[in-house]
Amino acid sequence: MPQTPGVYLMKDSKGHILYVGKAKSLKKRVQSYFRDSSNHSPKVKKLVTHLKDFDTILTDTEFDAFMLECHLIKEIKPHYNRMMKSPMSFVYLVINMDKKIRSFEISYQPSENEHNLIFGPFTSRGIVERAINGMKDCFKINCAHSTVKNSACLNYSLGLCNGLCLGGPAVDEYNAIIDKMNRFLHRTDTSLLEEMEKMMYSASEEFDFEAAAKYRDWIEAVKSLLNKEKVIEFTEENHNILIVEKLDDEGMIKLFLINRTQVLFTGKYHFQNQSIEQLCEVFKSIILSNFSKIIMNSTYDVSQDEIDEAQIIYSYLNSTNCNSLLIPSDWLNASGTKKLDRELFNFLNSLN
Length: 352
Known about the structure:
It is built from 13 helices and 10 strands. With 352 residues, the chain is of the alpha+beta class. It has 3 domains: 6-83, 3-Layer(aba) Sandwich (GIY-YIG endonuclease), CATH 3.40.1440.10; 91-226, no CATH class; 231-349, no CATH class.
């Protein structure tokens, strides 16, 4: 195994790919599977017992390896990559509208269909659960039955269920609340939050401060569903990114042009064999020819398919290895190219 960045593909005796991984040093990473096995998780131990062969793909940089690994996992869908998926992955709130009673689901991989309303992504499953449970407690729609059974559930006797389990008008009341939740998450209606705030103030005026505190916590939990994660917010706001990474001590650099989560262009250049002014002209031409083709849409939300790439790019941009420049769309216009020239020169000059 070489001590260079790349991707490794673990295979079983039949040549099936079991797992895809990336590494800054392929040799060190692959060796780790066969050392200190007592510290390995049961899933890793099981993976090693089925392992019979490796394939490797060398890359210029660790960033290349990250992006290639992400692409290969989505394409191949290896069994152990799914098994060993991090529990810190993004989660989604799914509201199913195709039932007599609307239903909630928290999912890592929600299925997209015409009946599902999908909200997110969120980094914390706990935050989503607190928001949903808080809303159910606040509006007394915390039914212990999953369907209408025409018999009262335990929560109904405790005053936590509006009678949804009994059917009738309570079902319409429940669905109306869920519809308000849907509009709230789409940022078109704040009446749900306003009702919760009224309940909090009413409890406070009656000196029931314990109840008021509960309402306050429920309100904050529901509000948190509107707060976008930093990686999502960054990806939606910053469409065009230039990245330069030094490859060796001989002045070789690699250029990446990224639009949101898509790598549009990569190229290697000798940094020391030409002046900064010459390199600026080369980079400027590449920037204009690639980014100018993209139709900007500021309302374009990050999709489920973009999440993994968005995380990789965001983390890389915030690492010490990365030298990057954000390219606003107005720099690509005829009136903004002077700004592009100046910022590009300063950026390349800072690499010395």
